[in-house]
Amino acid sequence: MHATLPLLAQTQFPPLRRHRTETLQVNVGYVCNQTCVHCHVNAGPTRTETMTRATALQVLEYLAACGATTLDITGGAPELNAQFRMLVGEARRRGVHVIDRCNLTILHQPGQEDLAAFLAAQGVAIIASLPCYTEELVDRQRGKGVYESSIQAIRELNALGYGQPDGALTLDLVYNPQGPSLPPPQAALTLANMPIQRFGSTLVTRGQFDSYMDLLRESHRDANLDTVMCRSLVSVDWQGYLYDCDFNQMLGLPLRVAGKPRVHVKDAMGRDLDGNPIVVRDHCYGCTAGQGSSCGGALA
Question: What is the pTM of this model?
Fold first, then answer.
């Protein structure tokens, strides 16, 4: 795999500072039942990185200490982590809003037969991956049979109350472009593909990396800087270290506090990150290009 961080180092991206932390996004590991072309985590069935119970308990302690009102759980397939249900249950017991970044097909994995019912009972919001609406393109990007399994999973979630008009259970579907292009303007969630990890390496192999970066820079909008997710979100990796966002986590660019090379959740209790400088590189244009893109969808 091609390393993309050296290609992103010389940046003119505007400096940013953090606001009050509202969302704690926790990556519980890189184990996944799928291997997707666009995956910025480079997750898959052969990965072994996974959060331990001790670290998960420290994350819950930090969740309370930082005052975040949303716990956003991601992976890999986060549901494959042994601590997933404990994290969900404890956060909900404390009144924290919980988001599950679900790939849908995980609902049909052995041992996950009751997953959909668990998520519904806990009132978990689901942001689900469905990179296109055609079977051909979904299976090309995510693997044969993924489209059919995903549609079946959506129907199961609908039956439990997800995505129903005026319902309390939210189900958002994420669209990803198939190649080096920006997602079209639309009201639904859209995510621009980040030029890092598996997708970035594919761009390098195809000789498209520079042209994609040119597209992102040329499409930058200053108006998106006010609402990029790193302003109010802290990302935690499977070992418990802090980052300004999940993309920085994948590039090994930790959140910096008072000159420390990296900070663990156990050492961050009571620290006020409001006003802290955000680590930026050229991949940040992926969040400010066009209508903008973040873990919450389009910014504009």
Answer: 0.89
